[in-house]
Structure to design on (164 residues):
């Protein structure tokens, strides 16, 4: 699956969900249910690739500010949310995490269940678990380490919006 097709699936899920972030899960499920299991597997491979691209310390810092803290699991769920936002927001965040200050005001920037949709749909379609064979993420995200006290200077727009 190429990037364009992947982001088209995400866009269709967002369109189906309207303004409700949580409804993106059901939207993606409906999109994937209309495709062959091989396409669902290809989607999951691309999803894993997008998660890995976003496994960066600077994005973790942004997530920390936006969510008032961010654990290991929370950072995974933040990246699920980030992918659910679509290509424009995702790519802008990779180029400049402070650009996430332009995203609407939510209470929590995590969408854990979005990351499970392809596996659940694949199992519905095949009665077999989705096994991707993907390697585990590195133990340490890419980029320069930060201290919490440094985050407002690193991401001034996010700090103005989310630090209370």
């Amino acid at each position: 699956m190429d990037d364009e097709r992947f982001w088209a699936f995400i866009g269709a899920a967002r369109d189906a969900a309207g303004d409700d972030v949580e409804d993106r899960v059901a939207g993606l499920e409906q999109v994937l249910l209309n495709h062959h299991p091989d396409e669902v597997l290809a989607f999951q491979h691309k999803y894993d690739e997008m998660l890995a691209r976003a496994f960066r310390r600077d994005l973790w810092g942004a997530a920390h500010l936006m969510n008032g803290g961010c654990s290991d699991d929370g950072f995974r769920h933040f990246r699920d949310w980030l992918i659910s936002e679509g290509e424009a927001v995702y790519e802008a965040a990779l180029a400049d995490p402070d650009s996430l200050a332009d995203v609407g005001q939510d209470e929590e920037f995590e969408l854990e269940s979005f990351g499970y949709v392809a596996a659940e749909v694949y199992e519905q379609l095949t009665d077999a678990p989705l096994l991707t064979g993907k390697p585990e993420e590195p133990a340490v995200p890419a980029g320069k380490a930060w201290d919490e006290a440094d985050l407002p200077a690193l991401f001034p727009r996010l700090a103005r919006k989310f630090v209370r």
Summary: The longest helix spans residues 37-53. Residues 20 and 148 are 31 Å apart (CA to CA).
